[in-house]
């Protein structure tokens, strides 16, 4: 697979009086993958995300996005077009008076010609299922709808990568599902690379790969199935475990002999059932 | 402190084009010393409901009784201050409201606003900070140097320093990481138990509502759809789904196990441990049956 982001020996601190909040981070993101970044609050996840589209510049190390170096100012707009970012608070990312204006804003900034803009606008709104809301005022929408409009604004710029920075954490369960569904569609149909910073492990277990951050360091990386075998380590760095794993451990403690394989609830139910039928 | 709603209606923007019926003839009772959770879809009226309990909103019609304070529609607001002293309100992201130069000063601000003397306010602030677990060595530091979870604790200490009899929590764990969430919930359970405080929690997390509360109020369309103990409310999967709510994840998991076992009778279980017991029970039951 092709590398789309290369982070190499990155360290960052907010100022010289402060300690490093990111320490010697090294990883790649592959084109078309869904990568989740998990870690306790203050572990450096969000700061790391801001390094990936040049919003902040590391003091040490480099970040390449689609071949461009983020510290190279000549290409910063190209990088920002390639990497769209959805933030946590749906109320903090609106500029337009209507949904239509808001989605168009990014394209105007990037000098997209008007006829192309009109076409992309309706396409982007259709993709996030907000086409019926083009003339509405963003502040009258629900949190989930607002985040979908934010995603449409990004999609309209035809990025290669979308970063969700706890984009669902302020939403109700319904809104959360809407967003994940929308991004999954984009991931599948458009081959969009997704980087999701999240506390929601039920979401994270569906990703291709996970990075675990703790105290500014990248302490683990791997496929969810591998990674969630290190339950003790994850607990130690303040992370929760996926429901199926907690359930499996509780059952094992009560004397039910189960393998350590199940990651999804369905797998655990199947295993329980196989075990039970052979008893 | 007993809290009672009698035929309470609230209309936003009355006599404007944006007029909206947010509470529709609500009657309910929150017993003194209970832990009540309020759940419901966004826009169901949860927040409007709890904002009436400490007088942030006044009813358009009807009557609210909280302890010995009575709030009626169309009344002048003289008793609101008394009500606000008795009912603390922890808003969403309360740490955004911190503003003082030191933690201790910030916590004193609340009680001093209610007319408490400097020395008494300091005493209460110290008590509250101990309750929420902020060590004394931090008290004279700036609240802005704390972590998000700690800042939230300081903000909660500020509400507790007014010594309320009831406390309203609006999505108190939003934005915290799993460890921070757990610590926050433990704190409320502790306040409820140790200080016999009446706790009213608005939440989107069904598991939290199920595990921590004695009573659950399900709001829909400005009205309570169900009021009852979690063991009752969370068995009504169909009704909950119809108003856009899911059951706690333990119940959803049990449903999957039951579907395999072709069993229908649902047993409420909300903690992982209880759920494991029920799973074993189901497995054994089926085995014995065969």
Structural class of chain A: alpha/beta
- Total number of beta strands of chain A: 10
Q: Helix-strand pattern of chain B, N to C?
A: EEEHEEHEHHHEHEHEEHHHH
CATH superfamily annotation of the largest domain in chain B: P-loop containing nucleotide triphosphate hydrolases
Low-confidence stretches of chain B: none
Here the CATH topology of the largest domain in chain B equals: Rossmann fold
The total count of helices of chain B amounts to 11
Helix content of chain B: 40-55%
Uncertain spans of chain A? none
> Mind describing the biggest β-sheet of chain A?
6 strands, mixed
How many domain regions of chain B? 2
* Structural classification of chain B: alpha/beta
The named CATH superfamily of chain A: P-loop containing nucleotide triphosphate hydrolases
Number of helices of chain A: 11
The succession of helices and strands of chain A, N to C, reads EEEHEEHEHHHEHEHEEHHHH
**Radius of gyration of chain B over alpha carbons?**
21 Å
How many structural units, i.e. domains of chain A?
1
Let me know the average pLDDT of chain A: 91
Let me know the largest β-sheet of chain B: 6 strands, mixed
- CATH C-level class of chain A is Alpha Beta
Whole-Å distance between the termini of chain A?
A: 45 Å
Helix and strand layout, with pairings?
The complex is a heterodimer of chains A (279) and B (290).
Chain A: E1 3-12, E2 22-30, E3 34-39, H1 45-51, E4 60-65, E5 68-69, H2 76-82, E6 83-86, H3 99-109, H4 114-127, H5 143-155, E7 161-165, H6 173-190, E8 193-197, H7 201-204, E9 209-214, E10 217-222, H8 224-227, H9 231-236, H10 243-253, H11 265-278
Parallel strand pairs in A: 3-8, 3-9, 6-7, 7-8
Antiparallel strand pairs in A: 1-2, 1-4, 4-5, 9-10
Chain B: E1 3-12, E2 20-30, E3 35-40, H1 46-53, E4 61-66, E5 69-72, H2 80-86, E6 87-90, H3 103-113, H4 118-132, H5 148-160, E7 166-170, H6 178-194, E8 198-202, H7 206-212, E9 215-220, E10 223-228, H8 230-233, H9 237-242, H10 249-261, H11 272-289
Parallel strand pairs in B: 3-8, 3-9, 6-7, 7-8
Antiparallel strand pairs in B: 1-2, 1-4, 4-5, 9-10
Helix pairs in contact in B: 3-4, 3-5, 4-5, 10-11
Function (chain B): ATP-binding (A) component of a common energy-coupling factor (ECF) ABC-transporter complex.
Membrane topology (chain B): Peripheral membrane protein
Pfam families (chain B): ABC_tran
């Amino acid at each position: 697979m092709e590398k789309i982001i290369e982070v190499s020996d990155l360290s960052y601190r907010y100022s010289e009086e402060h300690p490093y909040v990111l320490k010697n981070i090294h990883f790649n993101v592959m084109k078309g993958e869904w990568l989740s970044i998990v870690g306790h609050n203050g572990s450096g996840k969000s700061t790391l995300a801001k390094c990936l589209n040049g919003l902040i510049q590391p003091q040490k190390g480099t970040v390449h996005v689609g071949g461009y170096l983020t510290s190279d100012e000549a290409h910063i707009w190209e990088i920002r077009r390639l990497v769209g970012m959805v933030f946590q608070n749906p109320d903090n990312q609106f500029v337009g008076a209507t949904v239509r204006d808001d989605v168009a804003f990014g394209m105007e900034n990037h000098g997209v010609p008007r006829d192309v803009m009109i076409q992309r606008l309706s396409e982007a709104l259709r993709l996030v299922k907000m086409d019926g809301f083009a003339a509405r005022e963003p502040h009258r929408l629900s949190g989930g709808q607002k985040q979908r409009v934010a995603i449409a604004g990004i999609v309209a710029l035809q990025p290669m990568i979308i970063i969700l920075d706890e984009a669902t954490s302020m939403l109700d369960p319904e809104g959360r599902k809407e967003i994940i569904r929308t991004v999954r569609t984009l991931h599948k149909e458009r081959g969009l690379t997704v980087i999701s910073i999240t506390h929601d492990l039920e979401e994270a277990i569906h990703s291709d790969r996970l990075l675990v951050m703790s105290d500014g360091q990248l302490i683990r990386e791997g496929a969810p199935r591998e990674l969630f075998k290190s339950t003790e380590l994850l607990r130690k760095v303040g992370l929760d475990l996926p429901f199926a794993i907690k359930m499996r451990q509780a059952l094992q403690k009560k004397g039910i002999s189960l393998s350590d394989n199940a990651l999804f609830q369905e797998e655990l139910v199947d295993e329980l059932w196989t075990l039970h039928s052979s008893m | 402190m007993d809290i009672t709603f009698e035929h309470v209606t609230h209309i936003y923007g009355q006599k404007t084009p944006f007029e909206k019926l947010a509470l529709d003839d609500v009657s309910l009772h929150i017993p003194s010393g209970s832990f009540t959770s309020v759940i419901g879809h966004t826009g169901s009226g949860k927040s409007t409901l709890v904002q009436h309990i400490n007088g942030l909103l006044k009813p358009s019609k009807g009557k609210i009784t909280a302890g010995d304070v009575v709030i009626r529609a169309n009344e002048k607001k003289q008793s609101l201050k008394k009500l606000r002293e008795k009912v603390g309100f922890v808003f969403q992201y309360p740490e955004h409201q911190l503003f003082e130069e030191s933690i201790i000063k910030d916590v004193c601000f609340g009680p001093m606003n209610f007319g408490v003397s400097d020395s008494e306010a300091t005493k209460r602030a110290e008590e509250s900070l101990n309750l929420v677990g902020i060590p004394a060595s931090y008290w004279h530091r700036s609240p802005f140097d704390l972590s998000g979870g700690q800042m939230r604790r300081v903000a909660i200490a500020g509400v507790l320093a007014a010594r309320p009899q009831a406390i309203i929590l609006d999505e108190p764990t939003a934005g915290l990481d799993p460890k921070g969430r757990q610590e926050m919930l433990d704190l409320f359970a502790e306040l409820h138990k140790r200080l016999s405080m009446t706790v009213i929690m608005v939440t989107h997390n069904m598991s939290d509502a199920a595990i921590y509360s004695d009573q659950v109020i399900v709001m829909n369309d400005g009205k309570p759809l169900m009021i009852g103990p979690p063991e009752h409310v969370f068995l009504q999967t169909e009704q909950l789904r119809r108003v856009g709510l899911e059951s706690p994840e333990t119940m959803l998991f049990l449903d999957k196990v039951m579907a395999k076992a072709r069993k229908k009778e649902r047993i409420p279980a909300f903690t992982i441990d209880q759920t494991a017991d029920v799973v074993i029970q189901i497995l054994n039951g089926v085995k014995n049956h065969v």
